[in-house]
Amino acid sequence: MILREWQESLQLSILDASMHLQPISCDGNASSIQLHKHKLAIYQNAYRIRLIEALRTNYPVLHRLLGDVVFSQLGLSLILASPPQHASIRWFGHDLASYLEKKLPFSDLPVLVDLARFEWALRHTVDAADATPWTVSMLEQVPASEWVHLSFRLHPSVSRLRMQWNALEIWKTLTEDATAIPPTPERHCVNWLIWRSQDLSSQWRSLEEEEWLALQSLAEGATFAQLCEQQLSRSELNEQEDQVATQVAAWLKAWVRDQLLVQS
């Protein structure tokens, strides 16, 4: 067996916990085969243990809620169902929320899905790319004639979540006290905005539906004029154009204050 074939067989054996890698020299003795399996299992187990450790880092509160045994079982099943595809272990578990939606018995507790989505969004704020944010003074320097065509981008750290359960309440409780009894899961529909501020801290706040839709349009490339037009079409109070423009401008000021917007 050439070195490349040996390396590929070892990799496959570790990834799917199989016996792709056969002993280089084996006389068929049962003890020799067992020793080979034992040595291979050391690498196979180490690989899975490291992935589960990474999963705990990404989802610390979900880990506390489920406990070591159940969380490890969840991690092992995720490894089989969705093996890591990225070179960095940091991204393992990016699809955990989707997996929880489909995997029994976790799918019977949809609050776990919301909790996983929130924790992943928080984790994303830590290592999302940097970008230069808009400032109020920069906006003030934009000529009035250019506002119609002005567009923005959301900061790379921004996530927007539509959560259906009181996952954030559970997260807060177990973050403050890992031994606390978590609140009972309850329906609690809230839109959440999560991002990283300039001081590198993770921030979040709730969003009313109109602001959620405005941010969605902005993320899709809408200009200031288009935001105003869309808001005017959604208005249920027959607001005048100047009132709508004032509302959108107020949102922009808040988004700039929170450092959510970066230069295109």
Structure notes:
- The protein has 264 residues and is mainly alpha-helical.
- The chain folds into 2 domains: 92 residues, no CATH class; 156 residues, Alpha-Beta Complex (Outer Surface Protein A, domain 3).
- The chain contains 11 helices and 5 strands.
- The protein has a 3-stranded antiparallel beta sheet with strand order 2-3-4. The protein has a two-stranded antiparallel sheet with strand order 1-5.
- Strand 3 and strand 4 form a beta hairpin.
- Helix 3 crosses helix 4 and helix 6 crosses helix 8.
- The protein is elongated.
- It starts with a helix and ends with a strand.
Major sheet characteristics: 3 strands, antiparallel
N-to-C SSE string, H for helix and E for strand: HHHHHHHEEHEEHHHE
Record field, number of beta strands: 5
Tally of domains: 2
Indicate the topology.
Layout: H1 3-16, H2 30-58, H3 60-66, H4 68-81, H5 96-102, H6 111-127, H7 136-140, E1 153-154, E2 159-165, H8 167-176, E3 187-196, E4 202-207, H9 209-219, H10 224-234, H11 241-257, E5 261-262
Antiparallel strand pairs: 1-5, 2-3, 3-4
What are the defining features of this structure?
264 residues; mainly alpha; Outer Surface Protein A, domain 3; 2 domains; three-stranded antiparallel beta sheet; two-stranded antiparallel ribbon; 5 strands; elongated
